[in-house]
Design brief:
The complex is a heterodimer.
Chain A: H1 2-9, H2 11-45, H3 47-62, H4 65-78, H5 85-109, H6 113-121, H7 126-156, H8 169-178, H9 183-209
Helix pairs in contact in A: 1-9, 2-3, 2-5, 2-7, 2-9, 3-5, 4-5, 5-7, 6-7, 7-9, 8-9
Chain B: E1 2-11, E2 14-24, E3 29-33, H1 40-47, E4 55-60, E5 63-64, H2 70-75, E6 77-81, H3 92-102, H4 107-120, H5 125-128, H6 138-149, E7 156-160, H7 168-185, E8 188-193, H8 196-202, E9 205-209, E10 215-219, H9 221-226, H10 231-237, H11 241-246, E11 266-269, H12 274-283, E12 288-293, E13 296-302, H13 303-310
Parallel strand pairs in B: 3-8, 3-9, 6-7, 7-8, 11-12
Antiparallel strand pairs in B: 1-2, 1-4, 4-5, 9-10, 12-13
Classes of the chains: A mainly alpha, B alpha/beta.
């Protein structure tokens, strides 16, 4: 009850924070979709290339988020760029790569050799094989990676509040620094949870809709 | 016409196809037959350049395939493989329409052609066009595979063990349908199989390969059965050669004994095979069978006629 009252009373700050959070996630995921998909396609072309790209993406994920955001913020200041959300988005893009690259590669490499042979045999160029056969077939798996990345980004974005991003991490970080009532923390967590669950449900639905006849995560080894 | 001139394919030290000379005429069905690893599939895939030869020249109607744009070359040749390789996310219609879309046909033309092709391969469009490959039996999938290969009416069809993974009863039916189809479309067909009986049934000519990527014999099925060129060919053909050959030869094409002297007590049409004739001879009490072209008696046949015709 207290939490609901707190949320209703603090709409003035929570609503812009929620919008900022949504915006960070949206911008991050648009950029990450483009880069992750590209790198995933590259990673699917040869086992060695794949291991290399995945190795780098995995290493990025081991960097603590607070450290990464701080370094990037410092870098952005040095470069004279805007701080707050931008360095946080940059960091989140780096984190989002692994699930998207990994799933793109897994989905593409799971396309059956006989399907590829008949595609080439009927005169598709490499580009046509990619856009008409490999990517469409791998789509549910790729979306699965995008979905995992989104949920992860929704959560990690909160840490960005510590380097000045005015998102739903703000009430949490502020409270931790001031050690006051736990209600702002709960309010932030609630907002993040709703966004996370909402995004997961939405993308899961899209993924199921597109699964007919395609490769799904259950097909993967 | 497809001409192989001194074509060789090596993988490292291993020779897959060894100095192959082979001419496939337009409109004929040539079967590439042999044991696993004899180079028959390699030979087939060199035609549409899924495999590039190490040496020699493959020409289609006099044009070296190596000089042609590979995409354009492949689009001009239908390709059917054992695992079918249908696109699992596309409907039967969309699978058949793939190449038509690649070459930019308009929708009306595509729809009409897809309907025509599905009917040709015995899949009623109303029932099948919107199904996904996963909802079809193996035999139905391969029919779609054949329809897809015929999409833009290529002059040539390459078939790599197309019926190899299909149960014997369905396979037999698909073979009959291919024969029927071939009478309608008259494509140059190159067909790989390890099943000599399939080759005998479907081929105008058979190219029999030996283990080391060499051509052991290239001739018509009847010739192959009657006169195997080597011990290897004889062994590969297996037993009962002369009996199997009977169904390949028509009475029309063999010398018959002159008119009926009144002892014949069975009748066969002149379009029947020697096998049908032998069956009638075995049924008859006198051993003599009358041969008729419609109502007209054109001669008689007995065991001796059949024996002489087989040699």
């Amino acid at each position: 009850m207290d939490l609901i009252r707190f949320i209703l009373d603090n709409g003035d700050s929570l609503i812009p924070q929620t919008l900022d959070h949504l915006q960070i996630v949206a911008v991050t995921m648009v950029i990450s979709a483009a880069t992750g998909l590209t790198l995933g396609i590259v990673a699917s072309r040869s086992p060695r290339l794949g291991e290399g790209v995945l190795g780098v993406a995995s290493t990025l994920l081991t960097i603590p988020s607070f450290a990464l955001f701080s370094v990037l913020t410092t870098l952005f200041i040095a470069l004279g760029l805007q701080i707050g959300d931008p360095p946080v988005i940059a960091g989140l893009v780096l984190y989002a790569q692994l699930p998207i690259i990994r799933n793109t590669r897994a989905g593409i490499t799971a396309v059956s050799p006989s399907v590829l042979e008949s595609a080439r045999g009927m005169g598709m160029t490499n580009g046509q094989v990619l856009t008409r056969v490999e990517l469409p077939l791998a789509l549910p798996v790729i979306l699965g990676g995008f979905r995992q990345a989104t949920v992860m980004i929704v959560a990690i974005a909160t840490v960005g509040a510590a380097v000045g991003s005015p998102n739903l991490g703000r009430p949490i970080v502020d409270t931790l620094q001031r050690s006051g009532s736990s209600l702002p923390i709960l309010a932030g967590i609630t907002g993040v949870a709703i966004i996370g669950i909402g995004a997961d449900t939405l993308l899961g639905g899209v993924q199921r809709l597109l699964s007919r006849g395609r490769i799904t995560p259950e097909h993967l080894p | 016409m497809i001409t192989f001139t001194g074509v060789t394919k090596r993988y490292g030290d291993k020779v897959a196809v060894d100095n192959l000379d082979l001419t496939i005429r337009s409109g004929e069905a040539v079967m590439l037959v042999g044991p696993s690893g004899c180079g028959k599939t390699t030979t087939l895939k060199m035609i549409n350049r899924l495999i590039e030869p190490t040496g020699g020249v493959i020409a289609i109607d006099g044009v070296d395939t190596a000089t042609r744009d590979v995409t354009e070359l492949r689009r001009s040749i239908g390709y059917v493989i054992q695992q079918v390789g249908l696109f699992p996310h596309l409907t039967v219609s969309d699978n058949v329409a793939t190449v038509m879309k690649l070459v930019g046909w308009d929708r009306t033309r595509i729809r009409a052609r897809v309907t025509e092709l599905l009917e040709l391969v015995g899949l009623p469009p109303a029932e099948f066009s919107h199904r996904l490959p996963g909802e079809l039996s193996g035999g139905q999938q391969q029919r779609v595979g054949v329809a897809r290969a015929l999409a833009i009416d290529p002059l040539m069809l390459l078939m790599d063990e197309p019926f190899g993974a299909i149960d014997p009863i369905t396979r037999d039916r698909l073979q009959d349908e291919l024969l029927r189809l071939q009478r309608v479309v008259r494509k140059t067909i190159v067909f790989v199989t390890h099943d000599i009986d399939e080759a005998i049934k479907l081929g105008d000519r058979i190219a029999l390969f030996s283990q080391n990527g060499r051509l052991a014999q290239f001739s018509t099925p009847a010739e192959l059965l009657a006169r195997p060129a080597s011990k290897y060919v004889e062994e590969f053909l297996g037993g009962g050669r002369m009996v199997r050959r009977l169904s390949l030869v028509k009475l029309r094409d063999v010398p018959l004994a002159n008119g009926d002297n009144g002892t014949a007590d069975e009748v066969v049409p002149v379009d029947a095979t020697l096998r049908d004739a032998l069956d009638a001879v075995l049924r008859s009490r006198t051993g003599r069978v009358q041969v008729r072209d419609d109502e007209k008696v054109v001669g008689t046949v007995d065991a001796d006629t059949i024996r002489r015709a087989s040699q």
